[in-house]
């Protein structure tokens, strides 16, 4: 309730707080029987005033002078140090909540990271598999046109390598312009063909590869040993389908390998022994758990680690006379 008071006696009877807002009128805020008792001492006349709000401008009941009490004691008003304590508590709670969110976010990120990495690995594996499927299809289209798969490398009369199988199948992977630009009579690294060193070929570059985009991730497997002939043989003569005695579904045609640092136009591949050595060290491709390979029937398989190296050798050779039990690959 709000009253206009004219005497100090009335104020004392009702235990009221006074704030003078206009020179001649004083308003009283009555708190009833539950009146509070905040006290302040006038610095001018030492009069004790009751129910004074801290830090509010008041007029002394005795001398009438204005002052701002800074020595309020007792009652329901919180002293300044209590208010500061509340403020500090709020800041502490906010800071604790913020750091709590950071910690929870870090824990959540740590829990989700393996799933995200697994999803990325799966996407890279699929992208590389798609590249290999297109390459395998191009190899078969080449076979349909020339009655044999392309030789791993075409050589000059002096025996030096001149052109890679990757260049030979360019028309069959929708890169006819590059095939026609390439000078087939000159070495791959001659000045006229030097443009290939700065020309990325996405079809020959796996998304998981850390090598430059002008390098290749895909290689045929070659061997000079007549006792172990892969599909490409020694690399100088294209193989016919009838030469694959073990069956096209049991013979590797192209593999994905990381770290050889080979430009896509360079006529260089990987030998049987080199691939097996990399496989034993589990560093063939850049995909966790194994590597992708295209088979001679056009399918793509993921070859997992670890695997008996003899099984891998059987997959690489075209005429060893042994069938492959693919169920053992699926069980790994």
Q: What does this protein structure show overall?
A:
By secondary structure, the protein is α+β, with helices and mostly antiparallel strands. The protein contains seven helices and 14 strands. The protein has helices spanning 8-14, 80-146, 165-168, 176-181, 272-280, 309-316, 327-330, and strands at residues 2-5, 16-22, 25-30, 39-41, 48-50, 58-59, 66-67, 153-155, 161-164, 218-222, 252-256, 270-271, 290-295, 300-304. The strands form five sheets. It has a five-stranded mixed β-sheet with strand order 12-10-11-13-14. Helix 5 runs antiparallel to helix 6 (309-316). The longest helix has 67 residues, at 80-146. Residues 1-36 and 74-83 have low confidence and may be disordered.
In short:
It is built from 7 helices and 14 strands. With 332 residues, it is of the alpha+beta class. The longest helix has 67 residues, at 80-146.
Query: Beta-strand percentage?
Result: 15-25%
Query: Helix amount, in percent?
Result: 25-40%
Low-confidence stretches: 1-36, 74-83
Distance between the termini: 85 Å
Going across the major beta sheet, what is the strand order? Answer: 12-10-11-13-14
Order of helices and strands: EHEEEEEEHEEHHEEEHEEHH
Principal-axes geometry comes out as elongated
Number of strands: 14
pLDDT averaged over residues: 79
Per DSSP, the total helix count is 7
Radius of gyration: 44 Å
